[in-house]
Design brief:
single chain, 5 helices, elongated
Length: 133
């Protein structure tokens, strides 16, 4: 990839990111299933983190093509000595599971829906980052 980030480091980081998102989602489910934590702010931010994870997942695949000169499945197979398709699909399935769980949390409470919509509106104004706090 680059001198700063090696492809195997990026892969390990993606898996750690997924684990952290899973833990945070579980926390939100346990503490905010009835009344959302802090008026839905935590859950709305969790959605944003999940979308960021999706961005980095796509970026990893592109980085492997650009810097390893092979597809992500071939890279994972050769680098980890196992079925690259299974590894890739497993991480994508974790992403999908997180996204589904966060969607349920957002939709479970009108306060969280309002907070999330507010975050989305805030993203439209790239100069007003305070709107995301």
């Amino acid at each position: 990839m680059t001198e700063e980030i090696k492809t195997d480091t990026y892969w390990a980081w993606l898996n750690t990111f997924a684990m952290i998102l899973e833990l945070l989602t579980k926390r939100a489910e346990e503490k905010g299933s009835q009344e959302p934590i802090d008026g839905g702010k935590f859950i709305a931010r969790l959605r944003m983190a999940e979308r960021a994870f999706n961005f980095f997942l796509d970026s990893f695949a592109k980085a492997v093509e650009d810097h390893e000169h092979k597809g992500v499945i071939a890279y994972l197979s050769s680098h980890y000595g196992t079925d690259g398709l299974e590894l890739w699909n497993s991480l994508k399935a974790r992403r999908d599971g997180i996204a589904d769980r966060v969607s349920i949390l957002i939709e479970a409470n009108p306060k969280t829906v309002v907070r999330f919509k507010g975050y989305c509106e805030g993203l439209k104004n790239t100069r007003n980052l305070d709107a995301l706090l």
